[in-house]
Amino acid sequence: MVINAQHSGQPVVQLDEKSKAIIEQLQHDGRQSYSAIGQAVGLSEAAVRQRVSRLLDSGVMQIVAVTDPMQLGFARQALIGIRIDGDVVAAAEAIGEFGEVDYLVITAGSFDIIAEVICESDADLFELINDRLRRVPGVSTTETFMYLSLHKQKYNWGTR
Amino acid sequence: MVINAQHSGQPVVQLDEKSKAIIEQLQHDGRQSYSAIGQAVGLSEAAVRQRVSRLLDSGVMQIVAVTDPMQLGFARQALIGIRIDGDVVAAAEAIGEFGEVDYLVITAGSFDIIAEVICESDADLFELINDRLRRVPGVSTTETFMYLSLHKQKYNWGTR
DNA sequence: AGTGAAACGACCGTAGA
DNA sequence: TCTACGGTCGTTTCACT
Protein backbone atom coordinates (compact mmCIF):
# COMPACT_ATOMS: atom_id res chain seq x y z
CA MET A 1 0.00 0.00 0.00
CA VAL A 2 2.11 2.90 -1.24
CA ILE A 3 0.38 6.10 -0.30
CA ASN A 4 3.00 8.34 -1.74
CA ALA A 5 6.59 8.37 -2.93
CA GLN A 6 9.08 11.10 -3.52
CA HIS A 7 9.85 11.90 -7.14
CA SER A 8 6.66 10.11 -8.02
CA GLY A 9 5.68 12.80 -10.48
CA GLN A 10 2.56 13.57 -8.49
CA PRO A 11 1.31 17.02 -9.31
CA VAL A 12 1.99 19.49 -6.54
CA VAL A 13 -1.16 21.38 -5.70
CA GLN A 14 -0.90 25.13 -5.31
CA LEU A 15 -3.41 26.41 -2.81
CA ASP A 16 -4.51 30.00 -2.63
CA GLU A 17 -4.97 31.84 0.64
CA LYS A 18 -8.66 31.05 0.84
CA SER A 19 -8.14 27.31 0.64
CA LYS A 20 -5.33 27.47 3.16
CA ALA A 21 -7.61 29.39 5.49
CA ILE A 22 -10.33 26.78 5.05
CA ILE A 23 -7.91 23.97 5.85
CA GLU A 24 -6.70 25.85 8.88
CA GLN A 25 -10.25 26.13 10.15
CA LEU A 26 -10.87 22.44 9.64
CA GLN A 27 -7.65 21.53 11.39
CA HIS A 28 -9.06 23.06 14.53
CA ASP A 29 -12.51 21.58 14.17
CA GLY A 30 -13.24 19.17 11.36
CA ARG A 31 -16.99 19.39 11.92
CA GLN A 32 -17.42 23.13 11.66
CA SER A 33 -20.31 24.09 9.43
CA TYR A 34 -19.54 25.37 5.96
CA SER A 35 -21.25 28.64 6.77
CA ALA A 36 -19.12 29.21 9.86
CA ILE A 37 -16.02 28.57 7.79
CA GLY A 38 -17.36 30.89 5.13
CA GLN A 39 -17.75 33.67 7.66
CA ALA A 40 -14.23 33.13 8.96
CA VAL A 41 -12.58 33.15 5.55
CA GLY A 42 -14.85 35.46 3.60
CA LEU A 43 -16.64 33.12 1.20
CA SER A 44 -20.19 31.95 0.75
CA GLU A 45 -21.27 28.64 2.18
CA ALA A 46 -21.52 27.11 -1.30
CA ALA A 47 -18.04 28.25 -2.26
CA VAL A 48 -16.57 26.72 0.87
CA ARG A 49 -18.43 23.51 0.15
CA GLN A 50 -17.05 23.31 -3.38
CA ARG A 51 -13.51 23.89 -2.24
CA VAL A 52 -13.75 21.37 0.57
CA SER A 53 -15.15 18.79 -1.85
CA ARG A 54 -12.28 19.38 -4.22
CA LEU A 55 -9.72 19.15 -1.45
CA LEU A 56 -11.24 15.89 -0.25
CA ASP A 57 -11.68 14.38 -3.71
CA SER A 58 -8.13 15.18 -4.76
CA GLY A 59 -6.77 13.60 -1.61
CA VAL A 60 -4.95 16.74 -0.52
CA MET A 61 -7.02 16.78 2.65
CA GLN A 62 -8.87 14.24 4.72
CA ILE A 63 -11.24 14.87 7.60
CA VAL A 64 -10.94 12.07 10.11
CA ALA A 65 -11.25 11.18 13.76
CA VAL A 66 -7.96 10.62 15.51
CA THR A 67 -7.83 8.93 18.88
CA ASP A 68 -5.36 9.03 21.73
CA PRO A 69 -3.94 5.50 22.06
CA MET A 70 -2.82 6.09 25.65
CA GLN A 71 -6.29 6.96 26.90
CA LEU A 72 -7.61 3.86 25.21
CA GLY A 73 -5.22 1.53 26.97
CA PHE A 74 -2.64 1.15 24.23
CA ALA A 75 0.17 2.11 26.53
CA ARG A 76 3.21 0.74 24.75
CA GLN A 77 4.35 2.63 21.73
CA ALA A 78 7.68 2.28 20.00
CA LEU A 79 9.55 3.11 16.86
CA ILE A 80 11.37 0.15 15.38
CA GLY A 81 14.32 0.57 13.04
CA ILE A 82 14.68 -2.43 10.75
CA ARG A 83 17.51 -3.53 8.47
CA ILE A 84 16.59 -5.66 5.47
CA ASP A 85 18.58 -8.14 3.41
CA GLY A 86 17.01 -8.29 -0.02
CA ASP A 87 13.70 -6.87 -1.18
CA VAL A 88 12.86 -3.90 1.03
CA VAL A 89 9.49 -3.24 -0.56
CA ALA A 90 8.34 -6.83 -0.10
CA ALA A 91 9.39 -6.70 3.54
CA ALA A 92 7.61 -3.37 3.98
CA GLU A 93 4.42 -4.84 2.58
CA ALA A 94 4.65 -7.79 4.95
CA ILE A 95 5.41 -5.69 8.01
CA GLY A 96 2.67 -3.24 7.10
CA GLU A 97 0.18 -6.09 7.41
CA PHE A 98 0.61 -6.25 11.16
CA GLY A 99 -2.26 -4.54 12.92
CA GLU A 100 0.02 -3.02 15.55
CA VAL A 101 1.91 -1.08 12.88
CA ASP A 102 0.30 2.30 12.36
CA TYR A 103 3.08 3.99 10.45
CA LEU A 104 5.76 2.62 8.17
CA VAL A 105 8.35 4.36 6.04
CA ILE A 106 11.15 3.12 3.83
CA THR A 107 14.18 5.24 4.64
CA ALA A 108 17.70 5.98 3.51
CA GLY A 109 20.27 5.60 6.28
CA SER A 110 21.28 2.93 8.70
CA PHE A 111 17.74 1.54 8.74
CA ASP A 112 15.86 0.45 5.65
CA ILE A 113 12.47 0.60 7.31
CA ILE A 114 11.19 2.47 10.33
CA ALA A 115 7.82 1.50 11.75
CA GLU A 116 5.75 2.86 14.59
CA VAL A 117 3.86 0.27 16.58
CA ILE A 118 1.18 0.57 19.23
CA CYS A 119 0.58 -2.26 21.69
CA GLU A 120 -1.40 -2.81 24.84
CA SER A 121 1.45 -4.23 26.89
CA ASP A 122 5.13 -5.03 26.94
CA ALA A 123 4.23 -8.66 26.37
CA ASP A 124 2.35 -7.81 23.19
CA LEU A 125 5.23 -5.70 21.94
CA PHE A 126 7.73 -8.43 22.68
CA GLU A 127 5.61 -11.03 20.95
CA LEU A 128 5.24 -8.80 17.90
CA ILE A 129 8.94 -8.13 17.54
CA ASN A 130 10.25 -11.54 18.48
CA ASP A 131 7.70 -13.93 17.09
CA ARG A 132 6.44 -12.10 14.03
CA LEU A 133 8.62 -9.21 12.93
CA ARG A 134 11.92 -11.08 13.05
CA ARG A 135 10.42 -13.92 11.01
CA VAL A 136 9.44 -11.69 8.11
CA PRO A 137 11.60 -12.73 5.12
CA GLY A 138 14.49 -10.33 4.68
CA VAL A 139 14.47 -8.86 8.17
CA SER A 140 18.03 -9.00 9.45
CA THR A 141 18.25 -6.81 12.54
CA THR A 142 15.86 -4.59 14.46
CA GLU A 143 16.34 -1.85 16.99
CA THR A 144 13.51 -0.75 19.26
CA PHE A 145 12.98 2.74 20.63
CA MET A 146 10.36 2.66 23.33
CA TYR A 147 8.37 5.84 23.78
CA LEU A 148 8.92 7.56 27.08
CA SER A 149 6.79 10.55 26.18
CA LEU A 150 5.16 12.12 23.18
CA HIS A 151 6.05 15.80 23.12
CA LYS A 152 4.62 17.08 19.89
CA GLN A 153 2.18 15.88 17.31
CA LYS A 154 0.61 18.08 14.71
CA TYR A 155 -1.38 17.59 11.59
CA ASN A 156 -1.43 21.07 10.16
CA TRP A 157 0.65 20.90 7.02
CA GLY A 158 0.39 23.22 4.12
CA THR A 159 -0.96 26.14 6.09
CA ARG A 160 2.01 27.53 7.93
CA MET B 1 4.05 20.63 25.49
CA VAL B 2 3.66 17.17 26.90
CA ILE B 3 0.61 15.59 25.32
CA ASN B 4 0.94 12.35 27.11
CA ALA B 5 3.32 10.22 29.11
CA GLN B 6 3.42 6.61 30.05
CA HIS B 7 2.72 5.81 33.68
CA SER B 8 1.26 9.26 33.95
CA GLY B 9 -1.70 8.02 35.90
CA GLN B 10 -4.10 9.16 33.20
CA PRO B 11 -7.37 7.32 33.48
CA VAL B 12 -7.78 4.73 30.77
CA VAL B 13 -11.15 5.10 29.15
CA GLN B 14 -13.15 1.96 28.57
CA LEU B 15 -15.29 2.25 25.48
CA ASP B 16 -18.26 0.05 24.79
CA GLU B 17 -18.96 -1.41 21.37
CA LYS B 18 -21.25 1.43 20.38
CA SER B 19 -18.66 4.11 20.99
CA LYS B 20 -16.02 2.11 19.18
CA ALA B 21 -18.37 1.75 16.24
CA ILE B 22 -19.01 5.49 16.24
CA ILE B 23 -15.27 6.23 16.25
CA GLU B 24 -14.78 3.76 13.44
CA GLN B 25 -17.37 5.56 11.36
CA LEU B 26 -15.75 8.91 12.00
CA GLN B 27 -12.33 7.56 11.11
CA HIS B 28 -13.61 6.93 7.64
CA ASP B 29 -15.41 10.22 7.29
CA GLY B 30 -15.19 12.80 10.04
CA ARG B 31 -18.06 14.84 8.60
CA GLN B 32 -20.65 12.10 8.45
CA SER B 33 -23.97 13.22 9.89
CA TYR B 34 -24.95 12.01 13.32
CA SER B 35 -28.03 10.39 11.88
CA ALA B 36 -26.02 8.40 9.34
CA ILE B 37 -23.77 7.21 12.13
CA GLY B 38 -26.82 6.39 14.22
CA GLN B 39 -28.19 4.21 11.46
CA ALA B 40 -24.87 2.44 11.07
CA VAL B 41 -24.40 1.72 14.75
CA GLY B 42 -27.98 1.38 15.94
CA LEU B 43 -28.51 4.50 18.03
CA SER B 44 -30.65 7.57 17.70
CA GLU B 45 -29.11 10.71 16.31
CA ALA B 46 -29.25 12.42 19.72
CA ALA B 47 -27.50 9.53 21.42
CA VAL B 48 -24.70 9.59 18.86
CA ARG B 49 -24.32 13.32 19.35
CA GLN B 50 -24.01 12.97 23.12
CA ARG B 51 -21.39 10.27 22.81
CA VAL B 52 -19.39 12.19 20.23
CA SER B 53 -19.45 15.29 22.45
CA ARG B 54 -18.17 13.28 25.36
CA LEU B 55 -15.42 11.70 23.28
CA LEU B 56 -14.34 15.11 22.02
CA ASP B 57 -14.56 16.84 25.40
CA SER B 58 -12.56 14.15 27.16
CA GLY B 59 -9.84 14.35 24.53
CA VAL B 60 -10.10 10.67 23.63
CA MET B 61 -10.98 11.64 20.08
CA GLN B 62 -10.42 14.63 17.84
CA ILE B 63 -11.97 15.32 14.47
CA VAL B 64 -9.49 17.18 12.31
CA ALA B 65 -8.38 17.80 8.77
CA VAL B 66 -5.11 16.11 7.83
CA THR B 67 -3.26 17.09 4.71
CA ASP B 68 -0.81 15.28 2.46
CA PRO B 69 2.51 17.16 2.72
CA MET B 70 3.78 15.71 -0.56
CA GLN B 71 0.91 17.06 -2.60
CA LEU B 72 1.43 20.45 -1.02
CA GLY B 73 5.05 20.66 -2.04
CA PHE B 74 6.65 19.57 1.20
CA ALA B 75 8.67 16.90 -0.50
CA ARG B 76 11.45 16.20 1.96
CA GLN B 77 10.48 14.26 5.01
CA ALA B 78 12.84 12.59 7.43
CA LEU B 79 13.08 11.03 10.83
CA ILE B 80 15.97 12.32 12.88
CA GLY B 81 17.44 10.34 15.76
CA ILE B 82 19.07 12.63 18.31
CA ARG B 83 21.39 11.93 21.22
CA ILE B 84 21.37 14.37 24.10
CA ASP B 85 23.95 15.23 26.73
CA GLY B 86 22.14 16.60 29.73
CA ASP B 87 18.50 17.61 30.04
CA VAL B 88 16.51 15.63 27.50
CA VAL B 89 13.21 17.31 28.28
CA ALA B 90 14.65 20.79 27.85
CA ALA B 91 16.16 19.78 24.53
CA ALA B 92 12.85 18.25 23.46
CA GLU B 93 11.04 21.48 24.25
CA ALA B 94 13.54 23.46 22.20
CA ILE B 95 13.47 21.12 19.23
CA GLY B 96 9.70 20.97 19.33
CA GLU B 97 9.65 24.70 18.72
CA PHE B 98 10.88 24.30 15.17
CA GLY B 99 8.02 24.59 12.72
CA GLU B 100 9.38 21.82 10.53
CA VAL B 101 9.04 19.31 13.39
CA ASP B 102 5.63 17.70 13.29
CA TYR B 103 6.26 14.81 15.61
CA LEU B 104 8.64 14.41 18.51
CA VAL B 105 9.08 11.59 21.01
CA ILE B 106 11.48 11.00 23.84
CA THR B 107 12.64 7.41 23.56
CA ALA B 108 14.60 4.74 25.36
CA GLY B 109 17.37 3.24 23.24
CA SER B 110 20.30 4.53 21.30
CA PHE B 111 18.50 7.79 20.61
CA ASP B 112 17.07 10.03 23.30
CA ILE B 113 14.77 11.90 20.95
CA ILE B 114 13.30 11.00 17.60
CA ALA B 115 11.66 13.73 15.56
CA GLU B 116 9.86 13.74 12.25
CA VAL B 117 10.46 16.80 10.10
CA ILE B 118 8.81 18.03 6.93
CA CYS B 119 10.63 20.42 4.63
CA GLU B 120 10.17 21.84 1.17
CA SER B 121 13.63 21.03 -0.10
CA ASP B 122 16.92 19.36 0.71
CA ALA B 123 18.37 22.79 1.35
CA ASP B 124 15.73 23.54 3.98
CA LEU B 125 16.34 20.21 5.63
CA PHE B 126 20.08 20.74 5.66
CA GLU B 127 19.70 24.21 7.09
CA LEU B 128 17.40 22.93 9.81
CA ILE B 129 19.70 20.13 10.90
CA ASN B 130 23.01 21.91 10.55
CA ASP B 131 22.26 25.48 11.52
CA ARG B 132 19.51 25.06 14.06
CA LEU B 133 19.14 21.51 15.40
CA ARG B 134 22.82 20.95 16.14
CA ARG B 135 23.00 24.22 18.02
CA VAL B 136 20.26 23.31 20.47
CA PRO B 137 21.90 23.02 23.93
CA GLY B 138 22.49 19.36 24.79
CA VAL B 139 22.32 17.98 21.26
CA SER B 140 25.39 15.80 20.79
CA THR B 141 24.85 13.72 17.66
CA THR B 142 22.09 13.31 15.11
CA GLU B 143 21.30 10.69 12.54
CA THR B 144 18.96 11.41 9.65
CA PHE B 145 16.70 8.91 7.93
CA MET B 146 15.34 10.38 4.73
CA TYR B 147 11.97 9.10 3.62
CA LEU B 148 12.03 7.17 0.39
CA SER B 149 8.38 6.21 0.59
CA LEU B 150 5.52 6.20 3.02
CA HIS B 151 3.92 2.79 3.02
CA LYS B 152 1.37 2.91 5.75
CA GLN B 153 -0.29 5.53 7.84
CA LYS B 154 -3.40 4.97 9.87
CA TYR B 155 -5.27 6.79 12.54
CA ASN B 156 -7.72 4.17 13.72
CA TRP B 157 -6.66 3.31 17.21
CA GLY B 158 -8.87 1.84 19.83
CA THR B 159 -11.29 0.24 17.44
CA ARG B 160 -9.51 -2.81 16.13
C1' DA C 1 -28.32 7.57 29.01
C1' DG C 2 -31.75 7.17 25.64
C1' DT C 3 -35.98 8.63 22.86
C1' DG C 4 -39.22 11.59 20.22
C1' DA C 5 -41.02 15.87 18.26
C1' DA C 6 -40.89 20.52 16.62
C1' DA C 7 -38.22 24.77 15.32
C1' DC C 8 -34.29 26.09 13.43
C1' DG C 9 -30.26 26.05 10.70
C1' DA C 10 -27.23 23.62 7.53
C1' DC C 11 -26.65 21.31 3.32
C1' DC C 12 -27.26 20.30 -1.52
C1' DG C 13 -28.55 20.89 -6.36
C1' DT C 14 -29.41 23.93 -9.83
C1' DA C 15 -29.25 28.28 -12.29
C1' DG C 16 -26.95 32.34 -13.54
C1' DA C 17 -23.02 35.71 -13.77
C1' DT D 1 -15.27 29.62 -9.68
C1' DC D 2 -18.34 32.46 -7.39
C1' DT D 3 -23.22 33.89 -5.57
C1' DA D 4 -28.28 33.20 -5.05
C1' DC D 5 -32.12 30.58 -3.78
C1' DG D 6 -35.44 26.73 -2.45
C1' DG D 7 -36.24 22.02 -1.07
C1' DT D 8 -34.64 18.68 1.91
C1' DC D 9 -32.36 16.83 5.60
C1' DG D 10 -29.62 17.33 9.82
C1' DT D 11 -29.21 19.45 14.24
C1' DT D 12 -30.73 21.44 18.45
C1' DT D 13 -33.53 21.96 22.39
C1' DC D 14 -36.74 20.26 25.53
C1' DA D 15 -39.85 17.29 27.83
C1' DC D 16 -40.20 12.49 29.01
C1' DT D 17 -38.53 7.75 30.23
From TrEMBL, chains A, B:
<dbReference type="InterPro" id="IPR036390">
    <property type="entry name" value="WH_DNA-bd_sf"/>
</dbReference>
<protein>
    <submittedName>
        <fullName>Lrp/AsnC family transcriptional regulator</fullName>
    </submittedName>
</protein>
<dbReference type="InterPro" id="IPR000485">
    <property type="entry name" value="AsnC-type_HTH_dom"/>
</dbReference>
<dbReference type="InterPro" id="IPR054609">
    <property type="entry name" value="PF0864-like_C"/>
</dbReference>
<keyword id="KW-0238">DNA-binding</keyword>
<keyword id="KW-0805">Transcription regulation</keyword>
<dbReference type="InterPro" id="IPR036388">
    <property type="entry name" value="WH-like_DNA-bd_sf"/>
</dbReference>
<dbReference type="InterPro" id="IPR019888">
    <property type="entry name" value="Tscrpt_reg_AsnC-like"/>
</dbReference>
<dbReference type="InterPro" id="IPR011008">
    <property type="entry name" value="Dimeric_a/b-barrel"/>
</dbReference>
<dbReference type="Pfam" id="PF22482">
    <property type="entry name" value="AsnC_trans_reg_3"/>
</dbReference>
<feature type="domain" description="HTH asnC-type">
    <location>
        <begin position="15"/>
        <end position="75"/>
    </location>
</feature>
<dbReference type="InterPro" id="IPR019885">
    <property type="entry name" value="Tscrpt_reg_HTH_AsnC-type_CS"/>
</dbReference>
<keyword id="KW-0804">Transcription</keyword>
<dbReference type="Pfam" id="PF13404">
    <property type="entry name" value="HTH_AsnC-type"/>
</dbReference>
